[in-house]
């Protein structure tokens, strides 16, 4: 129902949610359920009042670039206080 945290980096980061039975998913090969932008240097909160449907499982990845197949590694501490709330 909610994703929240803080992007401490000086660049935007992308949170990619996957409907996948395994975590971590493989960017570029696992189907994307939703992609969210986490603005540089800001806290973020994304809410879904009625939730999101995931049939196989919830997988997620953080990427530096918007491309679906991006695998650019983040720097330690780029994202802090990350919470993914679900039922």
Structure description:
There is one protein chain. The chain is mostly beta strands. The protein is 0% helix and 44% strand. Strands 4-1-6 form a three-stranded antiparallel sheet, with no helix packed on it. Strands 3-2-5 form a three-stranded antiparallel sheet, with no helix packed on it. The mean pLDDT is 93.
- Oligomer kind: single chain
Helix content: under 10%
- Note the run of SSEs as H and E: EEEEEE
Flag low-confidence runs: none
Instruction: Estimate the global geometry from the Cα principal axes.
Output: globular
Q: In whole angstroms, how far apart are the ends?
A: 8 Å
The number of strands is 6
Query: Tell me about the biggest sheet?
Result: 3 strands, antiparallel
**Helix vs. strand class:** mainly beta
Q: In which order are the strands of the major sheet placed? A: 4-1-6
């Amino acid at each position: 129902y909610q994703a929240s945290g803080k992007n401490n980096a000086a660049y935007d980061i992308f949170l990619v949610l996957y409907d996948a039975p395994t975590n971590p998913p493989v960017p570029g090969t696992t189907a994307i359920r939703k992609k969210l932008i986490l603005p540089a240097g800001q806290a973020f909160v994304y809410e879904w009042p009625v939730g999101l449907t995931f049939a196989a499982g919830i997988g997620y990845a953080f990427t530096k670039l918007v491309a679906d197949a991006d695998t650019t590694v983040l720097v330690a501490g780029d994202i802090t206080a990350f919470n993914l709330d679900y039922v």
